Amino acid sequence: MAERPDVVEPVDETPLVRRFRFYSISVVLIGLLGALLVSWWMPPTDYTTDHIWTGLLLVLGFLIAEQLAINVDVRSGVSWSISFTEIPLAIGLFVAPFELVLLAHVIAGVSTLLIRGVHDRVLYNAGVLVIEISTAFAVLQAFRLSLAGVGPDWAGPFVGAFAAPVSSTLLGLVTVYVLGRRIRLSAGILLVGRTLVLGMVNSAVGVVGYVVTVQEEGGWPLILLALSGFGALYVAYSGLLRDQRDLEALSQVGLIVARSGQQAAAKPATGLDDVSAGVANDEWHAIAERIKDQLSATRVVLHIRFDPQAPMRTVVAGTDLPQELNTGDVTGSKGDPLLRLPGSHVRHFRRIDAMPEIRQSLLRRDATEALVVPLRSASHLLGVVEAHDRQSRWRGFGTADMRLIGTMASHLATALDNRRLLSRLRHDAYHDPLTGLLNRPGFRQAATEALRSDPQAMVVRIDLDVLSTVSDALGYAWGDRMVSAAARRIRDTLGPESMIARLEGMAFAALMHGRPIDEMHALAERLRDMLIAPYIVERLTLDAGAVVGFVSAAMEDEQTVVDVDTLLQHADVAVRAAKAGGEPVRAYMPSMGQIFLRRFQLVTQFRHAVETGQVKVHYQPKVALPSRNVLGVEALVRWTHPEYGDLHPDEFVPAIEAAGLVGALTGFVMEQALTKVRKWLDKGLRISAAVNISVRSLAEQDFPEQVSDLLTRYGVPPELLTLELTESGVMADPQKALPVLRRLHALGVVLAVDDFGTGYSSLAYLRQLPVDEVKIDKSFVFGMGTDLSDLAVVRSIVELGHSLGLSVVAEGVEEDVARDQLSAMGCDVIQGYLISRPLSESRLEAWLQARTTKTPGRMDETVLTLLS
Q1: What are the phi and psi torsion angles at 791 (to 5°)?
Q2: 631 with 829: CB under 8 angstroms?
Q3: Percentage of the chain surpassing pLDDT 90?
Q4: What is the residue extent of each domain of the chain?
Q5: Using an 8 Å Cβ cutoff, are 467 and 286 in contact?
Q6: What range(s) does the EAL domain occupy (predicted)?
Q7: Rounded to whole angstroms, how far apart are CA atoms 797 and 802?
Q8: pLDDT tens profile 383-416
Q9: 440-588, what's its fold?
Q10: Per-residue model confidence as pLDDT tens digits over 187-219
Q11: Residues near 649 by beta carbon (within 8 Å), at least 6 away in sequence
């Protein structure tokens, strides 16, 4: 056995096809030139009738050797042929002239290719055959001339026969390079090593067989025994190679399917298509080519059904199908018996003995035999694999071929089913199950891809209202029906070319082609009008509000990096701005982005600001009426930002609260206030501190324990700590706040309702809440001197508070008249600019020293009284 490159001419690569054809012509010309030189160099031969019989026997020997060849794939388009051609070549070097051996070898090699139906590489292989014989005889003649009379007679033919596969191997490596199909150095060395070993074995067998037969009378039985053993080794070796190639082919098919699945996973998730269903057409063509090469078939046809409801699509490797079948969609497949075989096992059909309907199907395919195996999952038919006409037709398809195509079909069916499941899972992962629209991850992925081709695309954000009320009243199923109906209206209004997603709950987004702002504004208004139209759900008419915000890259600053997340974020900012301004539609403006960025910076820089002393606590004194004793202070947070300067609490506290950092802020203010109270106690002063807490703190079940720990740590009596809650915060969910408030009240801390009179509190709930005081909102106190209604409200709150046993605190007192009025009403405590503005810690101490007088109190404590 020896190895020789067997090159497949590239297809559909025009520059590469031209290069290969030019290279094939060059190989033929080199071979012919070499043959002329060798023919001139060799001694002349007088041809006789015996040479005819010798030539026929050599042709027969080369034909047998070629038919027993094994093809081993090296790279795509290049394979290596293992055959016995060195055996008849070695014998020919003994008994026949150069021209006769050359003619016999070329006839046998070209005939073998034609018999196998291989027409695209005849020219190249003919050149290789000529070069092999020319090299063998050139080496033989050189050996004879240089070593005349030295060494045995068989040495020259042995070396010449051995030189032939070496020359074709080196030429094959050059061919691999010419075709641009690189081969690793280790693989090239392995092939050359195999060639040397197998060429040596084949040459030795041919030489030994000739020498023993000619020189040893009766030696032919020994040759038969040796050939029998050699044949057995060949059969075993060919079987091992076949198994190895089958395993490699299965591995390659699996890798192609896996690689295509990874590529599909990287594509935008816009729906179920051919790629997401499994393998793209290019990969299927590569699989079909691999099966064809492995089976040595003239044609392999894959019929693949990507969708159970769609027709099969056809992929062909090898010779083309007749036009009526090679249309990419099998027409009349329901009536084609080869495409509706039951079961999933391999069927072998031959035209000569097939049933009439099968014979007609083979005739339509211009095939004499076929291996057919369905691709089935547990529930339905995925496709069909057909292999037509083995290239060596006199052998036909065998059991090993049926086993191989059956195993490959099983792998493909499993891979197809897995890819279909993966595609479904991926579709579900990127789509909203209720509406069928993209979800947020799916929208981000698909929109990112779309923005690359249309950088001026616009993102629209739609928020629906009142759906929570519908769900609370009628159940979530009704709310889901309204969401589905709204999704249909959005699709109908924006059109099928728009990419639409349900982000969450009642929020939708869409990516649209860029257009002028006024045109987009009109479209957004039309969309909103469609969404707020009454919804008729099972004989009920339901209403929903909607707000629309939109943005495009053209609206952004030049410094802004435009991506999907940025556009979604800015569209959300536009929606919030629309809600805040009471507008139905709002376009994003860069100024909104600056506000958003500033809030974001404040949130991210808050902890660092606390650690570096930018955030501090100021104190505003509270004075009792009519005694004017200083009872306590209200702790108020202040932030001096290095870039933005002094920040008002109304700017940064809501942002910190929305970010979930209000607990850290409350803890910081409370610690600072208790530290101050402890210092006053050490000086004999009994002054309380009031701290504002957020409604979010009431949602923390361990908040009372946190307060208790702080009181214990600083050694402050609980009655010197007042916790102030806004009326709206307490009354928003009194049932949830009530247990926490009761636990706080049990600690002994004072609970106060801040901004009383501005909310929507119920007197019944106010009676149930364990609060100790109410604070009249400053807006009423400001208007007491000029507005009789404000004066009446303040008087009513004072009377109400006292009737419920609560202390009443008035904030915002700035004039003596207001102080006197409150004193006359019986208000217990006042605070405001008339008393003092909020002061830093050092200024508060100076204020206390300058504006108060000390008088002895009970239990050796000192009372501070405000000077007139």
Answers
A1: -65, -40
A2: yes
A3: 16
A4: 2-215, 252-430, 440-588, 616-852
A5: no
A6: 599-852
A7: 8
A8: 889 999 887 545 678 887 888 888 888 878 887 7
A9: Alpha-Beta Plaits (3.30.70)
A10: 667 767 777 777 788 777 778 877 777 776 666
A11: 636, 637, 638, 639
